[in-house]
Amino acid sequence: MSVNFDRFDLADLTKRRGAKWAAAPGDVLAAWIADMDFPLAPPVADVLAEAVGAQDLGYPSGQDVDAVVASFVARSASRHGLDVDPSLVVVTSDVVQSIYIALMTFSEPGDGVVVQTPVYPPFLSAVADTGRRLVEAPLAVAPQGYRVDADRLRAAVRGQGAKVMLVCNPHNPTGRVFADDELEAVAEVAEEEDLVLVVDEIHADLVYPGRSHVPMPLAAPAAATRCVTLASASKAFNIAGLRCSVASFGSRSLYDRFSAVPSHVRGGLSVLGLRATAAAWKEGDEWLGQVLSYLQDNRDAVATALAGLDGVVSFAPEATYLAWIDLSGLGMGPDPAGELKQNAGVLLSSGPDFGGPGKGHVRLNFATTAEVLQGILSRLGTYLSGRRPRVDSGRS
């Protein structure tokens, strides 16, 4: 199987009605929300075509749900080395939905929720929307990139009355794959403060050569019983619109508390999402390998382009198809995305949406064709090279 990842040109992409391209007016190039511009994995396309061809779009069966659980359990063991108890897995419609439910079942209004920023914006909105209190613990920035600093994390959390820590690994937006010692530090703080660890691993299948994703329960076995692991095929296989995810629990107690929210409140499941997810996890790895190779080339192209721009700082991601870019040295204000959309014709994600450390930053999605990416990088390079770095430039 050989996939043509250049199949869709710019004219094709701008006709799409999904959020990514619908938000890009005129000739603006979309590089914001985490969608890919590639053809679907053939096993996924086939199962969707089969269901539509048979006009089999009714309510999903228990068999559909069981197939997702089984494929997740098998994949966790074969790809990540983690044995998962299928009786402690809940299928939901969305990872973000599971984050909200976790906060509502593992904490009370006013309780603290630890979030290591910069981070995926729904982490922050979930805390606010559920009436919990944000305990912001920014990641440290070292010469090699972002990392968990155990002492810094412990100091931020101690005495804050927190009940839950939200963890994103592989990390969005920085692209870090946290090392065992970093995950162990997170687990140690969780033990000391008696926190439930809700770990978003939605990018676990998007790790580049040289790094490996290690699930939290493997990196810190002593903390396994306090872990809730959230996963989905949506990012790696580009099926976010089909709405399917799983939550896996490290103990029966956590499972029971989460499951106390009635299934109908948690939302119905999509027959297409269930079947596509099972197909992706069971049969999609050949396609995924090709996608990762293409994305790695794109990642390297982004790194090369940004390295040539004075006042711009970015670390090549170890996972994801997202580049986190520090433009604070160019004096573009706290939210450069608006200026870049208007003046460079590129739509990027706004850094401040990712928390306090996001000021002066943007996030770039490079999961597009090489031709479109070249257009994005050319526009950014032309505009940013015309700006003079501040004399006092430095990472904010």
Textual characterization of the structure:
- The protein is an alpha/beta fold.
- The chain folds into two domains: 10-41 and 285-384, Alpha-Beta Complex (Aspartate Aminotransferase, domain 1), CATH 3.90.1150; 46-282, Aspartate Aminotransferase, domain 2 (3-Layer(aba) Sandwich), CATH 3.40.640.
- Helices cover 40% and strands 15% of the residues.
- It has 15 helices and 15 strands.
- The chain has helices at 10-14, 19-22, 42-53, 62-80, 95-106, 121-129, 150-157, 180-193, 216-219, 252-259, 263-266, 271-283, 285-307, 336-344, 370-384; strands at residues 29-30, 89-92, 112-115, 133-136, 140-142, 145-147, 162-168, 196-200, 227-231, 245-249, 313-314, 322-326, 346-347, 349-350, 361-365.
- The strands form four sheets. A seven-stranded mixed sheet has the order 2-10-9-8-7-3-4, sandwiched between helices.
- β5 (140-142) and β6 (145-147) form a beta hairpin.
- The protein is globular.
